[in-house]
């Protein structure tokens, strides 16, 4: 796979943002040639161990303006978590320059902690055996949130995330969706300026996913919170982010709008139609086409950058339509097509 490719010129990368006080840079998050190399020891035979290096992040440069909502996606092992860990100060870059709100995260991790919120979908930051409210009380003290602000923020988050009935329940008894809402509230109690979310909708049902996405949009509108969202669910990006960055093998390979990503990857969505009875393949205008027929159900692939509305109207007009749904492409498929497309355009380029 070609890892030497430059980022696609998609939408405008975030370079603006309001200059803050105290000499803050214009870009709220700024990475310049950031690298992270891990030294790994591998067992070779019974006694011998071999050292080798894993370049998890490689010459990564981007900026995010205050108030932007950016999707950060890529295949497994691409370097997303490593980037987030460097942005929070958990990991120190091996090279390059990284700043969040003008702060070097690994040098001033505690100072930065007051300005950022982090949600890991697969792990909780809440105290497992304590009622939810006790975790919030502990965070109130840990972050030294002024009493008035704590009460105001807690009241607002309880209302917006509908946490009222859960506050006295031990965290281990909460459902995944409830726990996730509890975690998101915990990350926002201290009014962070930036929120890092790592797979915040993983394992949630459709209703809970919608609720989380709506909430994120609302927080961004009300507080201009900058959001960096890592996910494998393209709908998270579609419904929350105006910009998406794709990372692969530690390098930025795309930075722009989601529609542009679909165009670059030539990805397709699938319209699944249920007809009243078995019919011959429905006639649809190219490039849409029927890719599968199973009794009265048919699958119609169409470019992800186009709306399904015209296609639906056409099928409904001519066929006995009973039900329909639209399936999104997954991120791995979009990225795989993006590479295939890139390889096709530049056949002489080698990695
Ligand atoms: N502590 C570590 N020591 C050694 N190698 C590591 C370490 N952390 C990550 N890596 C390696 O760095 C690369 C990037 O990992 P990272 O977890 O950042 O990927 P990711 O994009 O978050 O993947 P996923 O979607 O699977 O979570 C992988 O090859 C991984 O094995």
From TrEMBL:
Protein's UniProt keywords contain Cell membrane: no
Cellular component per GO, a single term: plasma membrane
Region called Disordered, residue ranges: 1-25
Bias type Gly residues, positions: 11-23
Biased composition (Low complexity): 1-10
Superkingdom field: Bacteria
Keyword Transport: yes
Membrane topology category: Peripheral membrane protein
Keywords assigned by UniProt, alphabetized: Antibiotic resistance, ATP-binding, Nucleotide-binding, Transport
A molecular function GO annotation: ATP binding
Domain ABC transporter: 41-274
Protein name from the UniProt record: ABC transporter ATP-binding protein
Organism: Streptomyces gancidicus BKS 13-15
